[in-house]
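Hey, can you fold this one?
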Amino acid sequence: LAERPFHIGDWIKINNVEGNIESLGFWSTRVRTFYNSVVTVPNAMLLTATVDNLGLRQYRRYSTKLGIKYDTAPNKIDAFCEGIKTLIKEHPNMRHDVFHVFFNDFSSSSLDIMVYCFFIAPDWNSELKYRHIFLLSIVRLASELGISFAYPSQSIYMEKIKE
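Sure. Predicted structure:
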């Protein structure tokens, strides 16, 4: 505690408690959870607990898989991946030196494009705003390239039986 690993307002995770520091007392620390409850953590526990101060992150990781339809032509898959890379490089609030965008897997209902990148955002609200802008840009890119997103589906093939 003497090292001051967190301050009032920081988003922290201590064992199974996650939320914002609401108050720092001599005997305990109060954390407002995202369910709006308050958890009192004895400071004695903090002496041995691992404290993850999520509020001090320089970057906020975003990782997803975009499922596109199986009938997407290979050249369109390449163009889509390259287009997403360009969106990341041009986004002013994204890390430009570390990111990955690849055709990554054959799923049961889609061809999966992995997008792994980082937002430069001081807080969750900013992260959501930047993510919104980025995801809308991906939807626009897909529309421009004529790429359709997949959804869980099955095809049934009926064979004509000879009598």
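The first strand starts at residue 11 and ends at 14. Let me know if you want another pass with a different chain boundary.
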